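User: Can you fold this complex?
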Amino acid sequence: MAETEVSKKRKRPIVRLAVLLLSHSVLVSVICCTAGVFGLLLLPVLAKNTYISENALMPGSASSMLSNQEVSEANKLIKELNNLHSNPLGATTESHGIIAKYMSNLGAQVNNHKFHPQLNQFHPLHFFSGPDSGVMQENSTRSLYGINTVGIIRAPRGDGKEAIVLVTPYNAVKGGVRETLSLGIAYSVFSLLTRVTWLAKDIIWLVADSQYGEYAPVAAWLRDYHTPAFSNLDSLNTETCHVGNNNFESKISYGIRRSGTMAAALVLGVAYGNENEDTLGIYAEASNGQMPNLDLINIVHYLAVHRQGLRVKVEQFHWLLNSKWVKSLGEVFESLGKMVKTLNPDWKLGISAADYVEGAATLASSLYHQALGVPTGPHGAFRDYQVDAITLEFSLRISFDRLDRRNDFLLHGGRLIEGVIRSVNNLLEKFHQSFFLYLLTSPSKFVSVGVYMIAFALLVAPLPVVAASLYAKTLDLNPTSEKDKSATSNELGSVLQSWKWLNSVKTVFVVHFWGATVSLLPYFISQIPDSDPTTNFSVWILLSILSLEILRWILVSPSSHIYGLPQGEWAILKSATISSFFIGLGLMSVINFATAEIGALLMVPMALMAHPLKLDVRGQSLRSILRMICNLVLGVISFPPATFFVFKGVIEGFSGIKAGDFWNWVESLWAWNSATYLYIAARS
Amino acid sequence: MQIEASLWNASWATDGGRMQISLSYAPFEARYRGFDVARCSVDKSSDMNQFSSSGSVLKQGGGEEFSEELLLKPFPDRKVLAHFHFQSRAPHSSSHGRHHHLFPKAIAQLVKKFRVKEMELSFTQGRWRYEQWGGFDPLSSNNAKPPGVELWAVFDVPQSLVDVYWRNLTHTLSGLFCASINFLESSTTYSAPELTFKPSFGNLRYGTLPREAVCTENLTPWLKLLPCRDKAGLSALMDRPSIYRGFYHSQRLRLTSSESGSDEVDSGIGLEQTLTVVLQPSSWRTGKTYSVETNIQPSWSISSIFGRNIPGKCVIAKSSNVYLHLDNGLVGELKNLERENAKYVANTFESEGFQSNHAFKISVTPDKVFEEVDYLHGKSTSVIYGFSVEKYSDSQPFDLGLTWKIPVVWSCQQAPLHASRFLMGSGNERGAIAISLESTESSEGLPTSHIIDGRCELRVDIFQVVPWYIKVYFHTLQVFVDKQPRAMADVVDKIRVSPSKDKVSPGVMEMILKLPCGSKSAAFSLEFDKGFLHIDEYPPDANQGFDIPSALISFPSFNARMNFSEDEFLNNSPILSKFQETSPVLSYTEVLLIPLTTPDFSMPYNVITITCTVFALYFGSLLNVLRRRVDEEERILRSRAGRKAGWISQLLSRLSAKLRGRPQEQPTSSLPYSFISFRLVLKILLVASIAVTWQYYFG
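Assistant: Here's the predicted assembly.
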């Protein structure tokens, strides 16, 4: 902008480059956008193999000590718990008692932790049912509570400064064989660890009462572990109303026992698999798209594949696996890779089409889950306390009724967990060596931050270029019109002229403000009692339109003369919008890359293509009609996802548990709204 | 007595060979000047040839004496405590000279040189489990130590010199025990408690190193101080693998010296060396006895725990005894069981000392049975069996075994309040330290009625040292008694706070609390900010975090002491007389780990690179602007164009002008702007293709 004012005769090369870019902004933006999208599609090809970065971890270097003896002990526990489920009456308290008894017989310190599920709690795994559960709990009384059972093994010669946490969600009321199996795995490992001498960190086994969701009990325990309430006001762990059935139960304290700082956490789950092999699912995404250290995933993957013979998978979008165009794209990349290989055999870009499809599906799901900012399991609660945690979900190909099959499963699962704990136990410092910012394309392949940022940077690069070129164009345009009107342009007029962008910035700000109000509305709407989601949603839409009208009436009408000369004004408005959008995306990419990436994918084309409809209609040329159609199509395409996301935003707003995420959403919504407002303003 | 002199011609003696001895001048004559002969005082009653081949030790020369003892004690959680206690005593050097027969010379020199009045050094690995192993008896109060190294010393010097002596002492000890005690030299690591720790007059220093790893290299110099090392006597039991396999390992060295020598009875230096280990009898480990139903205690013997036997006593030890201690909880439980089984009544406790009763069996008949006498209330009291090792030898080693017959469940006597300390909050910015005290079950029966001013109060002393990088805000001290927030003045009787100074001294908090008697729990919380360290204060690698040393909680109104009825033997047994000493009940809290913001040291590199680039760009362009004169280049160009030049030079100048992107004042160069940029694109492409080919062929 300032560069354009410099006389054209003498320009520095860098300035000339900028001018060149500006003058070809359309070409640049098209090239950059395509390159960005292409780079994103290329990510599965560029993924590197994971490796264990921290040498101290030494996974699998020690032979496993878990034997059939521990497994048979665990089987005893499983049998006892399963017997309880046959008569559901009083199963809750008794199952806690049984677990606690088994733990303390091993020599662990046991305590129960009583918690009230949070009112605005939501089910992290199927959050689409969120509003219902929220309403249900609002009506419920404070008498609802869950009981976590916590067992702690003190490391024999350790100083107790650090601990490794093992979590098994267990629903005492509805818990099936699955959950008792995960308890069995944890118990077999736990019973081994009480007797080993190599333990340097304490082991905490948390049996999380999952009748109010899997996330809530873990989060509640972590909260009480880190920020206990000393005063009497809301202390429920000391309530003595709970009278145990037998002598033993009354001995278990409700005061929370502590160990040191947590080094890592593993959440165990068992699922019924429908695949042909025993698989192990790894869930790593925590709140706000934060990931645990890659080394933790690496250890699990290494031990599971190379030691226990399990197949490891991470979440995928299955619909992508069958989609034609991904497959054909994979083939294209495959042939490209082959071609590159003929040029230089050292370049290993070749990837088979099937691998590409797998990688793309995993990458998409990884991006999606990180962008959503909702943790994919109870491990998300640990990330809030800077603890690296993952959820491991075992799935078996057949039912667990056969005992030998079950023993085999317990042995493998237990050995895996033992190996992971042993590795983490070896670690002298925090996890720091490997990546924290990465996207997984398969359990053993990852894309690091340095690679995926390139695609994003390419995608957003046209934004400032276009904004600058638009601004420059209007500046070029205006002086000529000024000259027609008055030959002598006084100082004040030129100053006013150069400050004209303030007007459009004001408009953009107003739109953003509207976006903020709209995104804040759900919170207030959720305060309305006795309403179902549909009415809530319609109320929300109504209110947002109303507020838009009010804002327009208050703020926009005084400066409505802007629309008098749409020639230059809309361009300035667009450039202001784009630059604010660019700043927003840039900031967002630092906070949560995946959200920014998806946002950029959706918005960048729209922001670049946006053009007043009126002008297009007036133009009547083929080009402008084409452009108009493009605009309309893009607008419509962007709209349904937007409502989709907004709907999720609403749910999160109702549940309100993830304020950070919510704000992220708000932020992207702002950007989105500003673009739509451009449309609206242009249409009027 | 004779004096020998010798001539040396080695390089060290001759100033590197420069002052050689010329042997041609021989013979030589030597004169001794200023020669001061210090003699050893010899006890007239014994000759110097004390350690005669007969093996019997005569009365120790110079009043020095050494005794060794071992106390074994079963714990409720199937573990066994072994407590070695070695005591050496030397009379004062002024009266008996500097020569020592038994007493380690290094220690005597240390006491003399640094004027140490009292000192305690402990190396500990693992945690003492107060809940299972008890915290009330003198054994745990004296020997349960925080993990790592703890050192405190009282000096007999003026206050201004204490720091200097402390520094020298730490260096000496560091060399003596192969440990990094010299880190305690820095003033950020030690403190001077005044209120709570021990009555002192400003000449006490206290320091801990929570992270010090304890290993055999610390044990070996410690054993060197014993006259028999680990070659004979009780210390021969110290099989390294078995004592380091234990759940708790603490070696301790305590010095008391009364240099003033005012009271003749205790004058001299006393050295008390203890090794406390908690071991797991191995039968439990291998067998399947951990199956839950049978709660029977594991049977053990000395040989099964240590893998060795006692091959007789250390010949120069005055006494060499092994004790088996059954604490009062166990004895009470046994008595209850006995009462239930009336048929065992004949096997009465007093007469037989129930060493072969229905509950357990001791493999060796005890020489002596001590019973604790509790005058205050007629509760069950602990029993100690004494065994003398004197009559055992290599051919007939001493091996004490304990075999349980029936399951017995008991619990050790706990300190009145169980203390635990933890961190609150998350994140790298701030947090809080919380100390929570909870009353234990056993405390209810204790004589808590310390009526002070008509109120029943329980006095608790808390001593807490916080390193300077944990910036504690002492004004945020919150007190909760029985889960109710209380005003500080209600509970805290006296408080002494010395705030930390950055890189100079740690923060110290000493509190004397007066808790109401019936209170079930008390909690204190202190908020802190985590400081930023200077770059060279971080450990070189990515670190685990930083430690806050253990807090010391003491209960001065309770005395951890045992009373025994018989006295004549007790005086000969240092360990039992130690038990009879009055000492407050002490307990240490956990060491805390604080993760501080750890810089990634690859980051400075990146930052430097980026900063340099930015600076280069900025200053480069600035200099360019400043240096360049306006229109200078055009003028030169024009003059050059005006000059008639050859065809090639004209072409070159045109090319250079094009390369610079500045159109020449010629019709051919007045190309549209896009044309030049097209050229530019071409050039970029050319460079890129060169780069690609380079990469392809050489990369």
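Chain A touches chain B through 49 residues (CB under 8 Å). The two ends of chain A are 29 Å apart (CA to CA).
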